[in-house]
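Let us work through a complete example step by step.
Step 1: write down the sequence.
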Amino acid sequence: MLFSYKTINKNGEREEGDIEAFSLDLAISSLQRRGLIVSTIKLKDESGGDILQKIPFLNRVSNKDIVILSRQMSTLFEAQVSALRVFKLIGAEAENITLRKHLLEVVDDLQGGSSISAALSKHPDIFSDFYVNMVKTGEESGHIDQTFLYLADYMDRTYEVTSKAKNALIYPAFVIFTFISVMILMFTVIVPKIGAIIKDSAQEIPIYTKIVFWVSDLFVNNWLVMLLLLFALIAGVVWYGRTEEGKRWISNARLHIPYIGDLYRKLYLSRFSDNMSTMILSGIPMLKAIEVTSSIIDNEIYKEVLNESLAKIKAGQALSAALGERKEMPNMLIQMIRVGEETGELGSILKTMSKFYQREVMNAVDTLVGMIEPIMIVALGVGVGILLASVLMPIYNIASTAS
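Step 2: predict the structure and record it as tokens.
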């Protein structure tokens, strides 16, 4: 926590500043050890700290925060620092207010005798099932420092792959947003003025120009109705997307969009291989590894594949045989898993496949971006050209008639 203080030093001079400490008592003790007499001390957030820090949206816990946290914990555990001390130190130093709050609650649970994994499991928004199970395995094996290092490396890889896939869609989204904004501006400002001139000329208006004028009238005279319909459509899509049927439909649609579907498939296979290899190499039983992976793979179709496989493995089937019955799992991955089962090196084989699919995701993203840019430029050019032709052709006819 950050405290603001005012003190008097040995020379009777007044000093003021900020100090980081886990609690108010520790902050006062730290100042007194410096030979200072504390006159005023209070939590800085309560004394008018940065108001932006109090906005939850701006203080969400990002993947980067958890990676840094994991590396810090790995270093401190490796230095033989006790778990309680580790979380106290990191909780006091955390810049993110939300993360600090959760870490201090973990400290309270540890002081009450809870294990690290049990304390972390009470904060599912911050620490996933995968994270908690990895920590639990680390506690049982006595290699908690290595576990946090594995977690940091894993989350780094996941963040790199996922962020590149998301960033690839930023440029097309920006271009589409700009195009829609320009079209709305033209339909509401420019087309109505030009339309008035064309209508006053009393000449025959082509059908495509009438369609443009109709759309323009819709934007100008019924904008409130269109806005309400848009909000209703968005609300309906969001509601449907939260239902079980909607989640499954969206997950299935993602996998069947041309080119983009291939990117999503490789992304999910990369996530599956990476999760499974990390957990198996850490000593987590296969059934538990599959169960945890299915809960965090973020696609209903692949979740269904893993849940079905889990039931078949419990009935005595091998992992390769269980996964091989679904077309969503490529034959190459199944063959590699079978080799891993036969050699006893399943974790290492899955790690190799994880690296392979990560490279495939990167290549697919680069290819997709290379394809999207020219397609978007051509599509926007055609759209603008049709709109301009629909408006300018009648004006050209008016000018020809007048001359």
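Step 3: interpret the result. The chain is about 75% helix and 5% strand.
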